[in-house]
Amino acid sequence: MKSRIKNRLLLVTAICSLLAGTSCQYEEIVDIPYPESRIYLPIAVSGSISTDGIYTIDEGASTSWVSPTPGQPLKYTVERDNNAFIIPLGVYRSGTGKTIEGTANVSLALNPDTVQQLIASGTLTETELLPSEYVQQIPQGVQIQDGKNDAPFNIVIDLDFLRADAPKKYALGITISDTEHRVNEALNTGIILIDTRITVPQAAFSSQLEGSSFDTFVFTNSSLYWDFFSGDNAFAWDFGDGSTISHEINPTHHYTVAGDYEVTLTVTGVTGETVSVTNTVSVKNN
After folding, report:
1. How far is 128 from 112, CA to CA, in rounded Å?
2. For residues 129 and 116, what is the distance between their CA atoms, to the nearest angstrom?
3. Biggest alpha carbon distance in the chain?
4. Which of 30, 186, 214, 241 is the most exposed place for a label (fewest CB within 10 A)?
5. What sign has the CA pseudo-torsion 156, 159, 161, 167?
6. Is residue 92 within 8 Å of residue 279, measured between CB atoms?
7. β pairing state of 128-129 and 252-254
8. Using CA atoms, how far apart are residues 132 and 172, in angstroms rounded to an integer?
9. Which residues, at least 6 apart from 75, have a Cβ–Cβ distance to it below 8 Å?
10. Tens-binned pLDDT, residue by residue, of the chain (286 aa)
């Protein structure tokens, strides 16, 4: 046995000597201790991605971000048939490897007290506490699966209630807890602020002649808070000449006869409500 060990050492020495200008060093490999895993809410007041710690929902669909690529750029979705205003959220846990082994059962609850404190302190201005009876759904708990860092959940609010009180602002608070896993106490409560003006569509557009044309107009849609979710045609263009209604966002239209035409754009909002605006374009003889 001793001779085998000696032979192995000689072999290692020989290999090291062949590597000119290098030296052979041996270091013990040890386990690195990772910080303890903690459960947290990423929209929490003390650690939100928002600068003021409030998860604010105040941007509705606008034509400025529309692209041919499907996507969901908003902080909410709407299911009109279910009268549901849906806010997708999630709970997370920090850590890797053994620190995220096992499931974590996280409880959720509404927290009106924190909202009232923020209103009283002036942090939330011109804002009211969202009445709990209009929260259609908030899960009592969510489960982070073994080996996973997050678990999604939805808060669902009565869409008709939000529309009826537009343009008020409402806030609700949620707090997470877990009896078996440590929760980051600085990141256990989130405040969601909803500006209900996003439930009311606004119709607006401008027009200009295409290039050097005298009878073809390009229409630029600048409407706000239109229905991005239902799959219906959110826009309806009546060009005033008896032609087919267009549902394009920014259409181009050719007129065959000179004259003044009233062009009407009708916009559908997330509740199904419609609003219209009319502008006049003049087509001249060549």
Report:
1. 11
2. 7
3. 108
4. 30
5. positive
6. no
7. unpaired
8. 8
9. 55, 57, 59, 87
10. 434 434 443 434 443 444 445 555 545 554 555 568 899 998 864 444 454 578 999 999 887 766 555 566 789 999 999 999 999 999 999 988 888 999 999 999 999 999 999 999 999 999 999 999 999 999 999 999 999 999 999 999 999 999 999 999 999 999 999 999 999 988 999 999 999 999 999 999 999 999 999 999 999 999 999 999 988 899 999 999 999 999 999 999 999 999 999 999 999 999 999 999 999 999 988 7
Q: How far apart are CA 278 and CA 259, in angstroms?
A: 16
Q: Which residues pair with 154 in a beta bridge?
A: 88
Give alpha helix (H) positions in 179-253. Answer: none
CA distance 85 to 157: 5
Residue type, 194: I
